[in-house]
Each structure stands twice: as structure tokens, then as C-alpha cells.
Amino acid sequence: MAASVVSNGWEDLRKQARQLENEIDLKLVSFSKLGTGHGGVGYKSDSADTVPLLSGEHMFETMALEIEQLLAKLSVLNERLSEVSSTQAAPPSSALQHTLQRHQEILQDYTQEFRKTQANYRARREREDLLNTVRKDIDNYKSSSGLNRRMDLYLKENEHIRSSDRLLDEQINIAVDTRDHLVAQRLTFKRLQTRINDISNRFPVVNSLLQRINFRKRRDSIILGLVKVAAKCEIRTVIRFLQAEGHGVAEIHCRMSAMYGPNFMSDVLGSGAENLVI
Fold first, then answer.
1. CB of 3 within 8 A of CB of 88?
2. Phi/psi zone of residue 40: left (φ > 0), alpha (ψ -120 to 50 degrees), beta?
3. What is the CATH number of domain 2-43+50-141?
4. Whether the predicted pLDDT of 25 surpasses 70
5. Residue in 78, 127, 71, 70 with CA at minimum distance from that of residue 100
6. Cα–Cα distance, 63 to 44 (Å, whole number)
7. pLDDT for res 268
8. How far apart are the first and last CA of the chain?
9. Of the ranges 19-23, 55-59, 127-131, which one carries the lowest mean pLDDT score?
10. Position 278 pLDDT exceeds 50
11. pTM for the complete prediction?
12. If you placed Cys at 37, which of 30, 42, 112, 264 could pair as Cys (CB 3.0 to 4.6 Å)?
């Protein structure tokens, strides 16, 4: 009777162990696919705003926890199987020992596969984190390089504008200096004119005297001109008269020299006198 009870307990525990092993096997297959990124779910190092609630990492951790619990249950069942086999009156048969050893090997294999998948997943996650970090660094460097190039262009353009402003300021300063010099010259000329006017106003006698001298000089010039014209007319008339009487050139010259002097022709008539006598 006791042997049948032990046999029934052994069979029940073995069935439970097989069910757990099958369930763990299915879980490990899904867990392996999830860890290697197959099945449409993988680890992505995104920001908290873009990662969904049931992300690959969350599913992986949840499944890992379930598998650990199942492995713990299977380990407990294997211990109970060992206890049941040790409580039998007769020594355990080789088939029973082989079955018990097989269950322990399956538990060990499942545990190793679980640890291996978990380690591979963590290594892949660390590698992806590193790649994402490097990619972000490269993107930041590219963006900063583009920004630096734009800043250099802006600085060069700003320097050109400042150079143009300096040139314009220099030209404006030159124009202002020129205007100031012209204004100063105009003021100087105004002061000179004012002084001359002051001098002429202070000495009206000198001014009137100079005006009288100029007037007399012009009058004397007019009188001398009239006298000279009259003398020329008289000499020409006398010469024409003597020529009309039939006197020769030498005789006319002698008479005119006796009347008006030996240099009458150059003093009164000028260069046209010889032609007139001839």
C-alpha cells in the first residue's frame, strides 16, 4: 500500500515536472527570440517619450522573471522527486535514477540556456547603447561643426561690414575736414574784405585822392591822344600839299625836318610815315 502511494506521488511529481519543462521550453524559445531581436520586438535605446509601454526591454524583463519562477518551481519538484525516491523501501532502480538524473540535467540545461540568453541580451543592449552614444556624439559633432561653419561665415560677413563702415567713416571724416577748411578760408576772406573796407572807410581822403589821380591820369591820356591825332593830321596834310605842288621826297623831308624837327616821322607819325611820304 505504501509502495503504491509513493508510486502515485512519484508519477504526479513527474507529470508536474514535465509540464513545467514543456512550459519552460516554450518560454525559453520566446525568450531567446526576444533576446536576439527576432519576432518583431527588440531593444532600442530611445527616449522615454518615444518608447511604448510594452517595449522590448519591459517584455524581456517580465519574461525573465517568469522563467526564473518556473525554474525555481522545477528545482523544487526535482528536490521532491529526489526525496520521494529516497523514501522508498527498496533501493531505487536504474530507470528511476536515470529519470531523476534526466530531470536534473534538463533543469541545468534550461538554467544555462536562460543565463546565456540573458547575458547575450545584456551584452547586445550594452553594445547598442554604446553605438547609440557614438551615433549621438557624431550627430552632435556634425551639428556643432555645421554651426561653427555658419558662425565663421557670419563672423567674416560681420567683419566685412565693419570694414565697409570704417571706410565710410573715413570718407565722411575727410569730407567734413574739407568742408571745415573751406569754411575757414571763406571766413578768412571775409575778414580780409572787412579790414579793407574798414581801412577805406577810415581814410576817405586817401581814397578820394587816389580817385582824383586816376581821373587826371585818364584825362591827360585823352588830351595827349587828341593832340597826337591832330599833329598827325596836320603833318599828313602838309605832306600831301607838298606832294601836290610837285616837290620831291628829299625836299619834303628837309622842309618837314626844318618845321617839326628831325625825328618828326618817328615821334608823330610812327611806322607808317615812310609809306606816306613815298
1. yes
2. left
3. 1.20.58
4. yes
5. 78
6. 17
7. 55
8. 195
9. 55-59
10. no
11. 0.41
12. 42
